[in-house]
Amino acid sequence: MNEGMKEILEWQLTGGPSMINYGTWFDENEDGKIPEEEFSKDRFKTLSHLGVSFSELDINKDKIINEEDFRIIMEPYKLELSDANTPVIGAIEIQEVIKISNKENITIDIFEG
Question: Please, which domain of life does this record's source organism belong to (predicted)?
């Protein structure tokens, strides 16, 4: 599936990807929730590298870390993305270079606004 960059960024800001990463390290029973007991076990010894506590990640204070907590953390970035209206200067020139170079692994789509 070839998704657009906007869709990819939107998904990355849902909290899901962060929960996938943290779940790999801390969600022992793989139920999509990390209670403090699982977090504190630190079975892969990653806490010292993360520099974050359970209470800092349990944003909604429901005593578990889950996708919802990461969604709340990412919300300001999602708002920035949705408010962005940035022109891409030089896109037509870059598109021409790609065409001349016979590159097939990159495309630039220009939509009239």
Answer: Bacteria
Q: Are 58 and 65 in contact (CB under 8 A)?
A: yes
What CATH number does residue 16 fall under? 1.10.238
Q: Which domain does 34 fall in, by range? A: 5-87
pLDDT by residue for the chain (113 residues), tens only, comes to: 346 777 888 888 899 999 999 999 999 999 999 999 999 999 999 999 999 999 999 999 999 999 999 999 998 887 776 555 555 677 778 888 888 888 888 777 776 66
Closest CA to 58 of 48, 47, 68: 68
Total structural domains within the chain = 1
Domain assignment present for residue 14? The answer is: yes
| pTM of the entire predicted model | 0.68
Q: What is the DSSP letter of 34?
A: E
Asked if 35 contacts 64 with a C-beta cutoff of 8 angstroms, the reply is yes
Instruction: Assess if residue 102 is contained within a domain.
Output: no
